[in-house]
Amino acid sequence: MTDGVAFIDGEYVSPDEAKVSIFDIGFSRGDAVYDTVSAWKGYFFRLDDHVARFLRSCAGARLTCPHPPEEVKRILATCVHRAGLEDAYVQMIVTRGRFPSGGPRDPRLCQNRFVGFALPYIWIISPERQETGIDLALVENRRTPTEAIDPRIKNFNWMDLQRGLFEALDRGADTAVLLTPAGYLSEGPGFNLFLVREGVILTPRTNVLEGITRATVFDLAREAGVPVQEADLRPDALRSADEAFLSSTAGGIMPVTRVDGEPLGTGRPGPLTMRLRRLYWDKREAGWRGTAVKDLLV
Ligand SMILES: Cc1ncc(COP(=O)(O)O)c(C=O)c1O
Question: What is the pLDDT of residues 12-21, one digit of tens each?
């Protein structure tokens, strides 16, 4: 196993060697989209869904992925394979590229660039911390309005999420949940949010990324016979919930046990949360909705 492999400028290199130009507008203006997929025990999870979302993000940002989807999958699989990883955090990125030298600053003229990489699997909240549960801060900084940057386009403009994360960490919490400009719950840095109230699972309806793990929670809940609703939720709905959890490619389904330092529900990871979490990992271990990395190699 290595510390990862990146694909850039047509070459597979070590993470340290993977460098973009300071003149790439993806760097200087955050003009880039990406998607993160994971591999577990040698299987990508819902790879086609991640690639499809990636291509929608590209289209939404008027970026063109220079490789067709089958090639993107092959490149990512090659990164995982060359890194010698079974459990991996894998990203595909398209950046705007450079303005033509001496030419007009017209983003339509830029040649868009693809970067991919595989790193050892990343947990946004460590498995140990998940045992006791996450302390979530409801932060002042609002999520960027959908009308300005549609969060369904998975993009590099993370200033709102980063500011929220700083605020949460400074307050001693593990991570942050941001509100929409209208004051409803949205999401946090790298995850979607769920509540459980009287046996019903609720999740914010607007101003959120349509997470693949979020969609997976819908599937698992349906399978377990638990109703799920997307709704406009006020912060009090979180504070008074029976249970809450986060969902992300980088960590799966993760229990919340405190909000702004106050215990949520019983103050311990909730039973429905833990049931869904177990289902998620058991099914992943069994290769559910998986694509074997080795099947994509040429
Ligand atoms: C802002 C945001 N919301 C939600 C998610 C979770 O999405 P997924 O389940 O597809 O990883 C992410 C993932 O990185 C994210 O960045």
Answer: 999 999 999 9
Q: Is 270 in the pocket of ligand 1 (CB under 6 A)?
A: no
Going by DSSP bridges, is the β-strand pair 262-263/191-197 parallel, antiparallel, or unpaired? unpaired
Supply the pLDDT for residue 103: 83
Round to whole Å and give the CA distance between 295 and 70. 12
The domain segmentation of the chain, as residue ranges, is 5-120, 127-285
Ligand 1 pocket test target in 249, 277, 284 with most atoms within 8 Å of CB: 249
Between strands 134-138 and 252-259, the pairing is parallel
Instruction: Tell me if 36 CB under 6 Å of ligand 1.
Output: yes
Per-residue pLDDT band for 1 (boundaries 50, 70, 90) equals low
CA dist., res. 250 & res. 73, Å (int):
19
Q: Is 187 in the pocket of ligand 1 (CB under 6 A)?
A: yes
User: What is the architecture, at CATH level 2, of domain 5-120?
Assistant: 2-Layer Sandwich (3.30)
Q: What is the mean pLDDT of the chain?
A: 97
Q: CB–CB of 153/57 below 8 Å?
A: yes
CA angle 193, 173, 281 (to 5 degrees): 45
The size of the chain, in residues, is: 298
User: Any alpha helices (H) in the chain, and if so which ranges?
Assistant: 25-28, 47-60, 69-83, 127-132, 159-170, 212-223, 235-239, 271-285
CATH class of 127-285: alpha beta
